[in-house]
Amino acid sequence: MINSTSTKFVLSTLAVMVSSSLWAADAETADTQKDAIGLERITVTGVARGTRVMDSSVSVSSVSPDDLAISSPRSSAEAFRIIPGLKVESTGGEGNANIAVRGLPVASGGAKFLQIQEDGLPILQFGDIAFGNADIFLRIDSTTQTIESIRGGSASTAASNAPGGIINVISKTGTSDAGSVSSTVGLDYDTLRTDFEYGASINDSMRFHIGGFVRTGDGPRDPGYTANKGGQIKANITKEFDSGYVRLYFKHLDDKSIGYLPMPMYSDGSSISGFDSKSDTVHSANLLSTLRLDADGNISRGDMRDGMNPIVNSVGLEASFDLGDDWLVENRFRVSDVSGNFMSLIPAEVGSSSSIADSIGGAGSQLLYANGANAGEVFQSDLAMRVHSFDVTMNDFGSIVNDMKLTKSFDDSDVTFGFYTATQNINMTWMWNSYLMEVKGDNAALLDVVAADGTSYSDNGLYAYGVPYWGNCCQRNYDSDYTIKAPYIAASTKFGDLSLDGSLRYDSGDASGYYAGSVQSQVDMNRDGTISQPELSVSSIDNADPQLVNYDWGYMSYSLGANYQISEDLAAFGRISHGGRANADRLLFGKVRADGSVADEDSVDEVDQYEMGVKYRYDSLSVFATAFYSETEEQNFEATSQNFFDRKYEAKGLELEGAYYVGDFDFRGNVTWTDAEIVADALNPDVVGNTPRRQADFIYSLMGRYNFDKGSVGVNLIGTTDTYAQDNNDLEFDGYTQVNAFASYQLTDALSLALNVNNLFDTVGITEAEEGSIPDNNIIRARTINGRTTTATVKYEF
Predict the structure, then answer these.
(1) Closest Cα partner for 387 from 311, 470, 500?
(2) What is the separation, in whole angstroms, between the first and last Cα of the chain?
(3) Radius of gyration (Cα) for the chain, nearest Å?
(4) Percentage, residues of the chain above pLDDT 70
(5) Which end of the chain is more exposed for a tag (fewer CB within 10 A), N or C?
(6) Could you say which residues form the signal peptide (predicted)?
(7) Closest by alpha carbon to 155, among 195, 115, 107, 192?
(8) Alpha-carbon span 431 to 604, nearest angstrom
(9) For residue 69, what is the enclosing H or E element?
(10) How confident is the model at residue 12, as a pLDDT?
């Protein structure tokens, strides 16, 4: 846990990094040390044309494969934890992370105001699709060259629906004839993964790169079955010409990974007897399949082992050519066929066994073990769980994206004209059921409800086809298409040491399609010729009464920035921006009118941002500091609480990034201070003046590494100060510091061995909870960071 003392430690550590410049004369002065945070590199993310970081008026950072090794990520989103300004709640497994940037809200889930890209194009047009967060469809592997990010208002005109920032995962392209094969095995949990990659020149003007991974295992929390299984392959080929290049690329992803949802624990994160909050999961080998009615009313089965199962096949084209007379044309195009599943379990209630039984079967009902070693026996525990299956089929999340821009250069000035177009399908079906389970982390058994008169109110642990505890809200099907068109213009110029840039973007779009909710009917689901109690009222899709989706939107974004090069090693910048974010599927079932239209204020959320900062380096020290202020309007919907949001927020803060080299040691870190507030709420005015849920005053990532002749050892600290569980600011979570460790040793010039420890000290860290106040029994449903996990990797480079 972290308190004010450890907060002071974080700040003092950063201060030491800055003050260390006073004795940096003895440090090495190699180029990599002189430019420790990449102020000399050319950034390509979120800018109209590649720009040296020292000359730009944006906050930009990059993450290298070496940085990833030290930070010990267990998922794609965990790779983003070391990026300044980002609060990454990556406790959902390989996907379903919540990512906030600089105090912009995460009122429901996903990365609403942030865009995650691969090679300059978005993975999805909307980063917070219900049960379809963008990070579900992303895997970081050995094909990754770097992860580049920008935070702040410049992203408003650089991409659609990304006013808070952009994260761009950039792939290797075969620029060197080299490759690698590595195998990673879990030492204290079940995982086995092999990564491979190879790139080479075909001839003087062509090169290629291919790579990916395959893996299998249970995951960091043992569910009682193989929960992670699948892989990815990516390939690209580049043809260079005298005036430019053309690149074709391909990606196939089919990976099943367990998805963790809030789990039972005490309000301080400590464990309930029989259920370890750091290593257990609600998933169980005693609940592997669900029986449901699909979108067309057909009886079908879902497999819990599918977990989060993204299936992606995408093909893209990237081209850049010098047209002569200082004209440059660039185009990026990608078509993606995307589908999959989201299968997981969430406790809807954790409480008294007798009260839960009575609520289903009437007074005097009791619970019996439905399966497992004690099947048929009376359940004796005082505690039980009402569990809902989040059984979602992502039928079609396909997209077509094209971004073309034409740049004209005039001496020290550039003008870029661009046009972005995209289509995004969101076609999905929710088929949720209700079960009873014991509170146990090691293959929990299902429970049956038997009334006082002997009537059974459940079938093998299932007590409802649907979710009556939540008003049978969530049998849903929707098929909607979203089209985006966005012309934009960007201009930049230099007057000596002063660089100025400005940009405009107009996003327009339209949504069309339909959605349908739940209807109840009697159905013999198991086809045994008898109608059981759960079969008396079965939830299915109300296909007889579909609702129309037919609305459009439009908004203007702008960004103005200036950068002044005070000296070779010192620059100051400032920026003012206005941007927006169109809302998609989270408007359905409440915000769409009968004719399919949507109120203008609901269709788009707008963000105003102001920022200023400095970039400084001295010998082996580099520092990047940005002060920021934002005003945000938001409409949103949360699936688990069935609540809509209509709010305004304000946030101000300071983002610090620094790096320092001394001898064989190097240090890198960032700290972000944020003061955020709900300033207006049309639906729940009681929360006005409160701090938004899960918004910390300080978030930080600090890394240190010692390099020796044959390898290196490193430690990474990732942490947060206290946060509130919900917007009522009642239940408060303690802050925490997660320590990750890394060591590598070069056995030969080509063969290396690495040890990687995530959460070295087995710390408890709660990231989110369903409850806003402590219940009478002190039990909440929450997600925590995983306990300690250790892996060993053998890597051969050739």
Answers:
(1) 470
(2) 44
(3) 27
(4) 94
(5) C
(6) 1-24
(7) 115
(8) 29
(9) helix 65-71
(10) 39
What is residue 640's predicted lDDT score, i.e. its pLDDT? 61
pLDDT at 466: 97
What is the three-class DSSP state of 350?
A: strand
User: What is the pTM for the complete model shown?
Assistant: 0.91
In this structure, the strands spanning 114-118 and 165-171 are parallel
Write the pLDDT tens digit of every residue in 337-383: 999 999 999 999 999 999 999 999 999 999 999 999 999 999 999 99
Comparing 104-108, 395-399, 679-683, 746-750, the range with the smallest average pLDDT is 104-108
Q: How many CA atoms lie within 13 A of 734 on its CB side?
A: 16
Rounded Cα–Cα distance for residues 189 and 259 (Å): 17
Q: pLDDT digits over 554-568, tens only? A: 999 999 999 999 999
DSSP string, 527-539: -SSS--TGGGSEE
Greatest extent of the chain over all pairs of C-alpha atoms, in Å:
90
Q: For the chain, what is the mean pLDDT?
A: 92
Q: Any idea what the Cα angle at residue 424 is, between residues 422 and 426, rounded to 5°?
A: 170
Q: For residue 168, what is the enclosing H or E element?
A: strand 165-171
The span from the CA of 557 to the CA of 267, in Å, is: 42
- Nearest residue to 649 via CA among 674, 671, 612: 674
For tokens 């098929």, the residue is 479
Give ∠ CA 438-443-444 in degrees, rounded to 5: 5
Q: Are the C-beta atoms of residues 655 and 104 closer than 8 Å to each other?
A: no
Please name which of 138, 37, 82 lies closest in space to residue 742, comparing C-alpha atoms: 82
Whether pLDDT at 51 is above 90: no
Q: How many CB atoms lie within 10 A of CB 677?
A: 16
Cβ neighbours, 10 Å, residue 16 = 12
From the list 67, 15, 195, the residue with the least C-alpha distance to 668 is: 67
Residue 342 pLDDT: 97
- Residue 97 carries which DSSP code? -
| Tokens 């003050």 found at | 19
Separation CA 293–CA 732 (nearest Å) = 40
The residues, any chain, with a CB within 8 Å of residue 94's CB and separated by 6 or more, are 75, 76, 136, 139, 228, 255, 257, 258, 259, 308
CA angle 588, 338, 289 (to 5 degrees): 80
Q: Is residue 545 pLDDT above 90, yes or no?
A: yes
> Please, what is the Cα angle at 575 between 573 and 576, to 5 degrees?
165
Across 411-529, where does the E strand assignment appear? 413-430, 433-438, 447-450, 462-464, 476-495, 498-516, 518-521
Beta partners for residue 197, in sequence order: 180, 211
